[in-house]
Amino acid sequence: MSSSKHVVFDIVGTLVAYDHVFDAIDTRLGDRLRAEGIKPRLLGYTWMEAAEREYTNLSLAQSYVPFGEVFRALFYRMLWMAGIAEPRTWASAEDLEYIMAEYQLLKFRPDAAECVQKLRDAGFTVWAFTAADINRVGGYFKNAGVELPAENLLSCDDVGVGKPDLEAYRPLLEKLKSENDGKTPWFAAAHMWDVSAARKAGFKGAYCSVWEKESLSELFGEMDVMDDTLPGMADKIIAHQASS
């Protein structure tokens, strides 16, 4: 018998950390970047953030492009914006290929598997909904030794609508509600923009500040549960569900 309790996770940035790709930027370009007064981690963060913006803009314009393609395409623009006068001579195609290859190898946060297991032990079915490529994200689970049925892993690529468009969340929300007597499922993320949009679409919202540190609740509002750690967030989801 299937569970009537469901939690949908964002993956990259939430269960999976960005640290590996930041380290790859440092390994490949770190000394050259620091010579230009550019911190490798800050370049990585701004590259990721700019890619999320352009990915969203393309989706809103009904010109959807998978996130990985957007991320790759922005590399030389980000170097230009960071102050590199001739990005395509300063960094080679091989530099970019190295970073993109390492991007395929992002790792689970140390306590992410514990978070997932806590919820499963409490009777929740765990789902993953990502803006990333399904094969890449499936690899993150496999490499971490965390089982996730293929049918429980969904991507914005499936429908060509990117988060945080509310229409991106609704198909899975409606599926889970219709199969569970209208019970509201959870959406959990370490991106406040993501979980707040999912909550507006109709999910219960669970936020973990492990990535962003500052929740900016004055902008996004309060979520149903919030915690500084993934296992702590799981505990609060379980407690909230039990009391409702």
UniProtKB/TrEMBL annotation:
UniProt key word Hydrolase: yes
Transmembrane segments: none
The keyword Transit peptide belongs to this UniProt entry's keyword annotation: no
GO molecular function: hydrolase activity
Pfam families: Hydrolase
Keyword annotations from UniProtKB, A to Z: Hydrolase
Domain of life where this protein originates: Eukaryota
Record InterPro entries: HAD-like_sf, HAD_sf, PGP-like_dom2, S-2-haloacid_dehalogenase
Designated name of the protein: Haloacid dehalogenase, type II
Source organism of the structure: Penicillium solitum
